[in-house]
Amino acid sequence: MTEAILFPGQGAQFSGMGRDWADAHAIARQTFEEADEALGFALSTACWEGGDDVNRTDIAQPGILTTSVAIVRVLEERGLKRGEATMTAGLSLGEYTALWCAGSLSFQDAVRLVRLRGEAMQAASDAIPSSMTSLVGADLAQAEALAAVGAAHGICSVANLNAPGQVVLSGELAALDAVEAAAKEHGVRRAIRLTVAGGFHSECMRPAAERLAAALRDVEIAPPRLPFVTNVTGAPVESPQEIRGYLADQVCAPVLWEKSMRWALEQEITTFLEPGPGNVLGGILRKIDKDATVRSIQTPSDLD
């Protein structure tokens, strides 16, 4: 069996992502061509030549997914058997890549869904000025107490439980202003406003969740062929109908990444593969378990 396979979420994007793979490997170039055709516009050009456009939610999300799929396909040419992976999971957006990896979603459906997801999340962000704040060194109790402070000023909730001391709140701007002003009083070392389009994984995204739920009703989802762990519960899910519901819920629900990784570790899964732009997940995992082994594949030179 191969390692568990983990996929990155939004924030991993950069201008030019995937181009080195497309230049070096025909299957990677074909993957971007398939994405361009599925979306009806040149995602490849937006990722490789669009400059800051790559940071737009509706470009970053399908771009990250396509880059990750391209890398996995190259790895498969070199002997990777993704169907034998011990499990798969993805951080937020990365769940769609994980479901492709598990055979639950076709690549065409996955890339179209994340494009729509990005458009819907951007529209929700435009409608409600919102953002996210990272609480450095906070535990869940501190985060929940600060979320309650923020909630007196607008929507505010825990959005990401990534690793010990790495918790993120999400909500309206006035609410996050109040959180950041009160952070030290609650024993939190630093509260850092993140550079994101909006308050992801909070009720600010409710219109996006509803739009995505409607789109998911028309998409074929197959039972995963390997364990797929959802962000919403931090546990495996097999039922296509449950997966469909969790993908919609996930837009507003907190990302239980630490719980997901602890499930894997409890199954004695200790080796992980991270194919895609960036190596954020490897860094997070080592905060959860310093003995975990993570192999990040970001550029073609990493194949060596």
TrEMBL record:
Keywords: Acyltransferase, Transferase
Gene Ontology MF, one: [acyl-carrier-protein] S-malonyltransferase activity
Domain Malonyl-CoA:ACP transacylase (MAT): 6-301
Recorded superkingdom: Bacteria
Listed EC numbers: 2.3.1.39
Record field: catalytic activity: holo-[ACP] + malonyl-CoA = malonyl-[ACP] + CoA
Enzyme class: transferase
The keyword Cell cycle belongs to this UniProt entry's keyword annotation: no
Keyword match Acyltransferase: yes
Active site positions, chain numbering: 92, 201
Family statement: Belongs to the fabD family.
Name listed for the protein in its UniProt record: Malonyl CoA-acyl carrier protein transacylase
The organism of origin for this protein: Rohdeia mirabilis
Gene this protein is translated from: fabD_2
